[in-house]
Amino acid sequence: MTIPLHGLADHGEGPVSELISRCVHCGLCLPTCPTYALLGVEMDSPRGRIRLMKNVLDGRLEPDAAGYDDHIYKCLDCRACETACPSGVEFGKLVEGARAQIERARPRSAFARAMRWLVFRQLLPHHARLAVLARLGHLSKRLRIGTLVRPLPLGRRLASLLDLVPDRAPSARPLPASVAAHGAVRGRVALFQGCVMRAAFAGTNLATARVLARNGVEVLVPAAQTCCGALHVHAGEPTDARELARRNIASLEALDVDAFIVNAAGCGANLKEYGWLLREDPDWRKRAERFSGLVKDAIEYLAELGLSAIPGSLDATVTYDDPCHLLHGQKVRDQPRALLRAIPGVRFVELGEADWCCGSAGIYNVTQPDLSRQLLHRKVEHIRRTGADLVVTANPGCEMQLAAGLRADGSPASVIHLMDLLERAYGAR
Amino acid sequence: MATPFVAGTRGAVLHRGLVDLLGEEQVLWQKHDLQLYEYDGAVDTATPDAVVIPRDTADVANLARFCSEHNVPLVPRGAGTGLSGGAIPVEGGVVVSFARMSRILELDAANLRAVVQPGLVNLHLSTAAAPHGLYFVPDPSSQKACTIGGNVAENSGGPHTLAYGVTTNHVTGLEIVLTDGTIVRLGGKAHESEGYDLIGLFVGSEGTLGLITEITVRLSPLPEDKRTVMAAFPTMDLASEAVSAIIASGLVPSAIELMDQLATVAVEASVGAGYPLDAGAILLAEVDGPRDGLDDHRARIEELCRANGATSIRVAETALERDRLWAGRKGAFAAMGRLAPDYYVQDGVIPRTRLPDVLRRIAEVGERYGVRIANVFHAGDGNLHPLILFDGSLGPDVLRQVKAAGVEILRACLDAGGSITGEHGVGMEKNCELPLQYGPDDLAAMLHVKRAFDPAGLANPAKIFPTPSRCREFSLHAARSV
């Protein structure tokens, strides 16, 4: 096995110039950008980053420039700027293109290359290995390995990674191949299990299937599926992402279902963009577009379908933190709030800056720990002001980050996926 | 008119000097960073020699002293949303970004005042004041992003300044750093100050007199309620008749806006507010104030729109619907990216009754130059915003042609008895056209004021006043046509 010099593969692409030219540099995105708020420089604003891409395109800046690398990777890829942009600039696609361009142009250290190879090739696409890692992580956490390794070289990074490991032990039991609808059948879907979700949050996958089943939906859980490739796309490794996309499409597209259901916002946004990812592959583009057209977040699907079973009552003050890739990436805003309000007994309180990234942003909390921590503090401060017992969200990265932030803050509030909360409410009937 | 400016210290000496003075974190000097401070919301560009991001007034004063010793121009920058090149360092020098001076220093709700730093985003002030039942009136379309400092420098307007006045009517105090580093405080929280109205002078001075480091603004009570009416008309002519009828009726709407079909198409794609796409013109009118009587005013507006040919009328039922209608109008310029890669916006003011004539001339200009022009219009106060669409990547000639078309539009405004700028400022974008509006003596009087505050000419040079190097082409043009 060889570890290539420039990222994992030659992607032969950069940010698409037609997308760049949509930007009229009006600046309306600036106040919605978390990194601009923290750093206050144009280079760390969406408009500035687009200008950097344009300067590379125009030959005014080298694609391997250290400054380009720095500012493009300081972006959270939270896509809040897309929500703000009246011209419809698709910033996520741009920054992801820029990262692919950088990975092609800029040599990386042996360590960085080894980490990329390990994470993107040897871990994420292999759920059995991820499952082992999740159990190891949980064990290390219980043994307080973090405290032991903190003084060692790289120990601080490892310790802060362990801080993110959920308190709940990962479930070892695989999901059943299908969950039958309760009562009259209102729909038939396939559940996309994800990679991190499957390894560390299998309980949430089960809850998702059960909640849908309680509402008259037959849920298939196909065994043949792999990581969606979102983290690869975000890290400038689209070639590997395409391979994962092809595998998922090939194994799922023949299923006779109304929708492919996903409960991780980051995966959902990526699955919905398979058409874009494979746009230059004539054999796959149409298939990818059709597949993407059927992808729905569980929240989106359930809210559209409407609850046929009334949840039981929960006595709790609840707030909701929008996962960026659900709100900005998929424009799903009102649906989760409607579902929360449908749970009897729940007192829903809006969270200030719910539309702001918590700093998790895929692997951003590992690659940019300082900025990530500042955003997390800001988020925890807002959560404190709500007085909520439960912070609801809908993405594994956000869940881990928020939980770590609240634990460090000594907050009694706990974090829960909306599907877990709904299942808990149904259990309370 | 102004003496051509020759910048002093540049390059590594300047960078080292600034870093020694203010610290590494406050200074940008690498090429790829400076290239990101060469643009604003409009079309002109120029690269600064350095960017300084001050933390406080002391930083600004130290910087100004340094720059005056080394003969370096100072160009203030808020969010870079401006539309006349106000923040563009056309003669080089230091761009002073106020991005990290963005705090509300005091919110004195009882006295209806707030003391803020210049980098504060306009909307953030109204958001902070809202729990006290107050807001900051001036609402430029870019209010989500533009800064109060920029608003003061440009004396910005906005849709709702029709009834309540522009920025200058809402500023009661300023702290200024002059180019020699002197810190001057003007006014305060009081309603009126003694002596010369220097606040009035500094508001709208576009950074050419000094740097604004603190602003005391007037806050206003939020209206008890609002009614927002959207009416569709087959033509802009009919819509402008309706506007005249509304004003003539004695009603004082807080805002009356018009958009033509091309603008509406872009806006609707952006917000999906339900603007009819087949209408020749969309009118947006709002009345606000005590709830009693509001519905009568709304009904009167509807009646007048119908009498003047409105084909459909919609009243916003909820705050959300109203917000969406306004989001569309306010995002109109920024939505132009859906129609073309670039746009060049004009800001002429005309007597409202001349709108049909002027629009016809604008359309003619568009045909002659082979460019599409979308129109967005603060109809209540006759402030036109024709948006000339183009593709700047096709070469510098394209921009030159587009600017020539812009000059013709301004001329049409002046011929109609109007002026060349309503609220975007003169900057470097219309400075060559200023002599169309003012005679030599008028301009000389203004220059005396500039020199009194900035004798060395370091405060945002080559703005407002025509410069020989950049305006030669224009003088010939003007000489031919006068």
Q: Please give the alpha-carbon distance between the first and last residues of chain A.
A: 55 Å
**Average pLDDT metric of chain A:** 93
Q: Give me the CATH architecture of the domain at 311-427 in chain A, please.
A: 3-Layer(aba) Sandwich
Oligomer: heterodimer
Number of DSSP strands of chain A?
9
What is the approximate shape of chain B? globular
**Largest sheet entry of chain A:** 5 strands, mixed
Helicity of chain B, in percent? 25-40%
Molecular structure report:
The complex is a heterodimer of chains A (429) and B (482). Chain A is of the alpha/beta class and 429 residues long. Chain A is 51% helix and 8% strand. Among the domains of chain A are: 17-105, Fumarate Reductase Iron-sulfur Protein, Chain B, domain 2 (Orthogonal Bundle), CATH 1.10.1060.10; 311-427, Rossmann fold (3-Layer(aba) Sandwich). Chain A contains 24 helices and 9 strands. In chain A, the strands form 2 sheets. In chain A, strands 1-3-2-4-5 form a 5-stranded mixed β-sheet. Chain A has a 4-stranded parallel β-sheet with strand order 7-6-8-9, with helices on both faces. In chain A, strand 8 (390-393), helix 23 and strand 9 (414-417) form a beta-alpha-beta unit. The model of chain A is unreliable at 1-7 (pLDDT under 50). With 482 residues, chain B is an alpha+beta fold. Among the domains of chain B are: 104-221, Uridine Diphospho-n-acetylenolpyruvylglucosamine Reductase, domain 3; 225-334, Alpha-Beta Plaits (2-Layer Sandwich); 340-426, Alpha-Beta Plaits (2-Layer Sandwich), CATH 3.30.70.2740. Chain B has 16 helices and 18 strands. Chain B has helices spanning 11-22, 31-34, 57-70, 122-129, 148-154, 161-164, 198-202, 236-248, 261-271, 294-307, 319-330, 355-369, 396-415, 434-437, 440-453, 468-481, and strands at 27-28, 50-52, 74-77, 94-97, 104-108, 113-116, 134-135, 171-177, 183-187, 211-218, 220-221, 225-233, 255-260, 281-289, 312-315, 342-345, 373-378, 383-390. In chain B, the strands form 4 sheets. A 7-stranded antiparallel β-sheet of chain B has the order 15-12-14-13-17-18-16, sandwiched between helices. In chain B, strands 5-6-10-8-9 form a 5-stranded antiparallel β-sheet. Chain B starts with 10 loop residues before the first helix and ends with a helix. Mean pLDDT of chain B is 93; it is low at 1-6 and 476-482. Chains A and B meet through helix 3 of A and helix 9 of B.
